[in-house]
């Protein structure tokens, strides 16, 4: 019988066995659960330690979706994943609330111009139609921002925003209809091995015997690895942003603007403006509180770029965690522990790649290898074998 912690709250009890246990109910966990169900795998279990799905790193992201990366693999992941986001409502019945406002990367340093020129050439070779902009075009398209120091820029009109909660819950709801058990308020406390093979998962609400665990814990992924003596090179790094009060002076067609050298960005958010800026001196850690000193520097930089912000107040502020790897690329696939799989380390661009990467993980688990996109270079062993593939376009 179910146990009750209050007259109104039912404590969910996990099943005794599972064909696969997915730990972490953000975009990666939800997508993996859904795609495993689509492939017909039975007795799949997804557990999330928070009271709601998608409220960890996924729920604290800016919601951007873009093709503009500088490595072949990230561009290919974007092409596959953004196509899935386009057809998300048709597939799940849930709108992804896509807004194609376009992305503008504004470049003010010569070294960035050279890298981005090569990146745009690579994007073109992979079928991504990014435009190269001069200073006058940048000023026109980013108005009311001021970029007198712009050297050049890159713009893609097919990029923009989608809603993280809608996509997570679209996957969760559809997965549940297909038989996946999805449980919140359930923390994985220990993974038990037998002869270096997954044997069971101990949780705060019960034990599950399984031979397959998928780690989709995002910034908290390394903890699960340490519990079985496995080093997972994923570190949590704080990023914060704010949303202004209603901002009628902002043009309806205002794009997602990124001042690349300053790691400062703006985009419309409801009737206001969302702005974030990365702190280059941020210390690795799980602190998700607002750093008021950094926010002041952020506001000063934002007002300098968009002077009309000076007369606008802040409505909300938020901080969340990136899941950083040494090369800013994810780790997808098996590990030296038999039955323990990783889908983590997306370094700030996991939300947009979540749809396809959940599908890729389902292919790995069922077919033995990913086929939709060649992700062989994103394996766990690349770090020890010095095969890093650094992404330049990290904000």
Quickly list its features.
alpha+beta, 6-stranded mixed β-sheet, single chain
Q: Based on DSSP secondary structure assignment, what is the total number of beta strands?
A: 21
Note the total helix count: 9
Rg calc: 21 Å
Q: What is the H/E order?
A: EEEHEEHHEHEHEEHEEEEEHEEEEHEEEH
Q: Report low-confidence residues grouped into runs of 5 or more.
A: 1-10
**Biggest β-sheet: count, sense, barrel?**
8 strands, mixed
Spatial strand order of the main sheet: 7-8-6-16-17-18-15-19
Summarize the amount of helix as a percent range: 25-40%
Structural class by SSE content: alpha+beta
Let me know the average pLDDT. Answer: 95
Beta-strand content bin = 15-25%
> What global shape is seen?
globular
Note the gap between the termini: 49 Å
Overall description:
The protein has 395 residues and is α+β, with helices and mostly antiparallel strands. Helices cover 27% and strands 25% of the residues. The strands form five sheets. It has an eight-stranded mixed sheet with strand order 7-8-6-16-17-18-15-19. Helix 2 (72-86) crosses helix 9. The protein is globular and about 60 Å long.
Question: In a nutshell, what does this entry contain?
Answer:
The chain is an alpha+beta fold and 395 residues long. The protein has helices at residues 27-38, 72-86, 88-92, 110-125, 135-142, 164-177, 221-226, 292-305, 350-367; strands at residues 3-4, 10-11, 20-23, 44-47, 64-65, 103-107, 131-133, 152-156, 160-161, 181-183, 188-193, 198-203, 206-209, 213-215, 235-244, 256-259, 264-269, 272-277, 314-324, 331-334, 340-344.
């Amino acid at each position: 019988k179910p146990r009750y912690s209050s007259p109104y709250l039912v404590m969910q009890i996990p099943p005794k066995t599972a064909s696969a246990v997915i730990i972490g109910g953000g975009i990666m966990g939800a997508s993996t659960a859904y795609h495993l169900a689509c492939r017909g795998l039975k007795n799949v279990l997804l557990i999330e330690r928070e009271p709601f799905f998608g409220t960890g790193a996924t729920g604290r992201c800016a919601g951007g979706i873009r093709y503009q990366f500088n490595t072949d693999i990230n561009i290919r992941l974007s092409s596959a994943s953004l196509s899935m986001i386009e057809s998300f409502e048709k597939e799940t019945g849930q709108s992804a609330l896509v807004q194609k406002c376009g992305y503008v990367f504004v470049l003010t340093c010569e070294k960035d111009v050279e890298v981005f020129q090569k990146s745009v050439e690579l994007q073109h070779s992979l079928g991504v139609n990014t435009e190269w902009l001069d200073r006058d075009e940048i000023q026109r398209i980013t108005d009311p921002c001021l970029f007198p120091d712009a050297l050049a820029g890159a713009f893609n009109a097919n990029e923009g925003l989608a809603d993280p909660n809608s996509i997570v819950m679209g996957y969760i709801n559809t997965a549940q209809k297909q038989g996946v058990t999805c449980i919140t308020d359930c923390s994985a406390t220990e993974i038990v091995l037998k002869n270096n093979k997954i044997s069971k998962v101990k949780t705060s609400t019960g034990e599950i015997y399984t031979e397959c665990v998928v780690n989709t814990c995002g910034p908290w992924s390394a903890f699960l690895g340490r519990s079985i003596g496995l080093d997972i090179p994923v570190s949590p790094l704080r990023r914060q942003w704010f949303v202004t009060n209603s901002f009628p002076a902002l043009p309806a067609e205002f794009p997602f603007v990124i001042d690349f050298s300053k790691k400062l960005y703006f985009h419309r958010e409801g009737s206001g403006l969302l702005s974030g800026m990365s702190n280059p001196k941020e210390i690795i850690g799980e602190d998700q509180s607002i750093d008021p000193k950094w926010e002041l520097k952020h506001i000063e930089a934002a007002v300098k770029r968009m002077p009309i912000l000076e007369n606008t107040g802040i409505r909300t502020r938020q901080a969340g965690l990136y899941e950083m790897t040494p090369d800013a690329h994810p780790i997808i696939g098996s590990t030296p522990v038999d039955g323990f799989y990783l889908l983590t380390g997306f370094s700030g661009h996991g939300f947009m790649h979540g749809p396809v990467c959940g599908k890729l993980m389902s292919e790995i688990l069922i077919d033995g290898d990913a086929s939709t996109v060649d992700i062989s270079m994103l394996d766990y062993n690349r770090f020890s074998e010095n095969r890093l593939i650094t992404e330049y376009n990290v904000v």
